[in-house]
Records
---
Amino acid sequence: MKILVPVKRVIDFNVKVRVKSDESGVELSNVKMSMNPFDEIAIEEAMRLKESGGASEVVVVVSIGSDKAQETLRTAMAIGADRGILVKTDLATDLGGVEPLTVAKTLKAIIEKEAPDLVIMGKQSIDDDSNQTGQMLAALLNWGQATFASKLEMKEGTAIVTREIDGGLETLSVQTPAIITTDLRLNEPRYASLPNIMKAKKKPLEETTFDDWGITPSSRLKVIKVSEPKKREAGIKVDSVDMLIDKLRNEAKVI
Amino acid sequence: MSILVIAEHDNTNIKSATLNTIAAAKDIGDDITLLIAGHNCGDLASSASQIDGVQKVLKADAPHFENMLAENLTNLIMAQAQNYSHILAPSSTFGKNIMPRVAALLDVQQISDVIAIDSKNTFKRPVYGGQAIATVESMDSIKVLTIRSTGFDAVSVEGGTATIQDIDVPAETNLSTFISREESKSERPELGSAKIVVSGGRGVGSSEDFKLIESFADKLQAAIGASRAAVDAGFVPNDYQVGQTGKIVAPDLYIAVGISGAIQHLAGMKDSKVIVAINKDEDAPIFQVADYGLVADLFDAVPEMIEKL
């Protein structure tokens, strides 16, 4: 079985994001960048399938981004991916540049060449928060999908997936090839060991462009502006439970 | 403008997020059609025809719509899509699962989590976990949107007189098969639509002590939420989680107990009408967004609240 995992370089989830003063986007220079957390879960899940299923499996990681996205691919290879493909672009990958539809079309072209049995990917990237690419890719390939996975089990050519839905859990079986998107509870990603980080530097990394995959990126959305959310003013401190109950009853009138 | 709204329901009742989505549709135009795809959903379609603002109900009743599988619903929506300028669904796990499939096949770029309609082609949506708001204009001929329910006040379930039309049902795809669903059983209101939410954080300390939060919530007939820290620590299951990676809520009253107020948690509750924070650390960031802050040990304050309410 061959597994393909797309990964994205995004602002680290611990960083407080700053909106640019001209409202054209958010500040990305001199900001700590990391692999999208949901993608880390995807690569971990691929590794677990590989480790439990024998040596014939290959895990390929793909990233679309600047030269720096190579670091993200190396991180994925340090966790255990066998090789990487970079689709190099100078376009923004968070807002107003490479959009989910373009990503899905590019991944489709790569998948047609690589022919994986399974694609495991994050349910969303924590920059533009769209939560679209996996579902779009599944539609373009006419494959089945299981989104927001919290448990994955392979059984004779089908994936048995438990999904996190509003108000509970749902279990589906999906024919392979299929797209699985990851939710937080699927697994806890491992840390790459130093020897593996060293080994990852020698793994093959193919550098390509959109052109190589027959894709012309086009923006369908014009970003008019990116602004600060409305700030909520701090209210008052109350001294006692009695005062709190009084305020909620008589001032806010919510209880 | 002709607008198609995809209804979220359980074959018996319409889900409240559908009513918020119809409200968003009304901000775009008046010609609103509601699509109900389900199984044995005739009664549901009749009651949905009375929802305020809905002009027409399209009903697709077939066994393979019972469990709302994305592949089957996508084919159904695609058969109708060309008749509309806008296609909307709630940005719940239901809408998020289906709509990007539709958008990709229409070759349009979906706009997720819309919180405001500026015009028929310009929309506002939160990005970076709500740390920024993007205003985007769509160049596509058909706009595919998912609507965040907290951005729009629900329309009334009465007042409409829509016609009901049965539509053709495409064949089952068999790409995926439903096995089972396990609903979180609770007598309490649903977290996403409750008027009052009581949430506990890491400060609660253990799953045993989380019972205190439960009693507090029951006293107020509130839903229970939790911060990601409390979920990660194993106090409660993940579907309690309020935040960027969990549920986005905007109740009339949100009570944060033992929650420090990490950015990712604030992203999920900062649109609540009234926020109360109870925390013993007076420097906790949660106090910067709270209307009423009580600096106190939650194990003293919460039992006192329960007793006095």
---
Amino acid sequence: MATVEFEHIKKNYGGVEAISDFNLHIEDGEFCVFVGPSGCGKSTALKMLAGLEATSGGTIQIGGRDVTELGPGKRDIAMVFQNYALYPHMSVRKNIGFGLKMAGMPADAINSRVEEAARVLELTPYLDRKPRALSGGQRQRVALGRAIVREPKAFLMDEPLSNLDAKLRVQTRSEIVKLQKRLGVTTIYVTHDQTEALTMADKIVVMRGGLIQQIGSAEDLFHSPKNIFVAGFIGSPGMNFFHGRVETGARGPVTRFGGQEIALPDHCASVVGRDMVFGIRPEHIRVGDSGPHVGLSLVENLGTEKILHFHTPGENVLELDRTVMANDEERDAQTMLIRVIDDHRYNDGDTLSLAFPVDKIHVFHPDTHEVAR
Amino acid sequence: MSDTSTQRQGRSLAGLIPSIDFSAPRHRAKFGYLLLAPAVLLMAGIIVYPILLSVNISLQDVRIARVGATGEPWTLKNYAWLFGSSEFWHAIWVTFKLVAVVGGLSVVIGFATAMLVNQKFRGRTAVRLFVALPWAVPEVVATVIWAWMLDSSFGVVNWSLLKLGFVAEPIQFASNPGAAFAAVCFVMIWKGYPLMSIMLLAGLQSIPEEQIQAAKVDGAGPWQRFFYITMPNMLPVVGVTLVMTTLWVFRDFAIIHVLTQGGPIGATTTLSILTFEQSFEFFRMGQGATVGVITMIFCAIISRALVGRMAKSVH
């Protein structure tokens, strides 16, 4: 059990800066998830923590001990890899016990530890099989077994679920969380899947382009994103964005959406006359009797919920750099989504009136992409 | 290709092989056989026929075999001579010694160089080229150069050894049996290890990086990673490589022939040298063919045993 500390960590590949000034404190026993699009530096950060990649600057501490100059075997960590990285020529028993054997533990002690780990992970019947005779989910559990048997200070997991099918992924996700809660070992988990991040983490670190965008709980990131990237990345489907000018209305600041006034939070009074970016989540838009009218371009029925698509009014269309919206491939700036759970039958081409609850509108500066407060 | 030309071709093919649609599941295999047929016929002509021919000659008491001449009656005389001859047993002993020394050392050196050029370092491409160089030089050319360098009167090797004070008088590579055998081993290893190195490098590159990383995290040092991760992963490749070296050493003729002609006093006479001697120096082609047939049987047994073992150890 230990805290993990990154202090001013940098990583350069040749002249390219992959990670710059990475600072992070992870509490003892915390489940911390690094999330971001591919190439954001999350795996590099994990590998530097594991000692598999050298840092270009800064220090890393595990349990208060500076491990920056130590090899992976001396950091007292265990790692679970994306493709499991099991040793194909060893039985499950030997795979799980390999780390203990390297540590010079006597054979009978290794055996009892391995049996215990196998019991926890329900792997006992498979102990004498080779990895190739196991299913994907079982291999994943062997990889977990190899990690827990060593009772390390921290677990490092590099996209451990991405090779599993959708159903098994959901199941294994909760198993990992339960296991981590039970063992209470500090865990650093890397994923590109924001759903995994939201469901598993105590602390989420959103990264992009080698920089930390925001650190916080799932609640923090969902309700108070610090910038457009985090707002768009967290949540599925992602947040709707549109732009408009802040004006002074009868009861406070407003902007125009499809020609109709929309009330804005009071703090927007300070930016009256300026063009701003507004964000609202699909589940926060309400279908009502008054407000801007839109025509539905597509209705997606998912059973319980429905996703309604409509075209963003021309003057409100936001032109953003595609990289900012990396999470939302199916999304284009001209379309906004509404997520509804009701019994109403919606059809393509229906005209609806929308209401944008004022406390659910996020306001961002168009130049810095930072939230306006 | 336009539709009409495809149809025309279809029709003309249909004319040749009436009404078989090779894309139908039932007929798919037939098309495969059809494509294989030319290769199989060619192999039958240039491999199987000569083998049968040499088996035929080995069963005849002939000095100079002529294709098409009326065959002698079949006899086991040649085989009786062979198993009773000390030359034959000596050649087998020399061949196995050579296989053990050359096979063993070139795999070890090949493995070491493969590990070396598998590391990331500046100038790696140049070093890889350098490692592969002996393999690219034609065998006879390389051996002639080595024969000159190893010459006891004006060879550069003896000159260097004398200058450096390692030996008091020139080593007689041509007349000292031990030295001649060592020289043959050396040149064969020099010529043979690059291919081993290239094959083993391919094997090393196929070991998933994450397995090595997992072992590092598990606390395994460089030697432990080599014995517990690299070696087991490499066993199938090492198996293939060993088969190839063994068969190469068994069959190789040019290096020994150019360097020592099998001498002195038979110290480097392997089975292939013996085949040549009997057939083309003593003109006892029946006996030469007999040695050839026995060599072939050895090679078949060795490759079967090693390939079988190797196939089992593949994960």
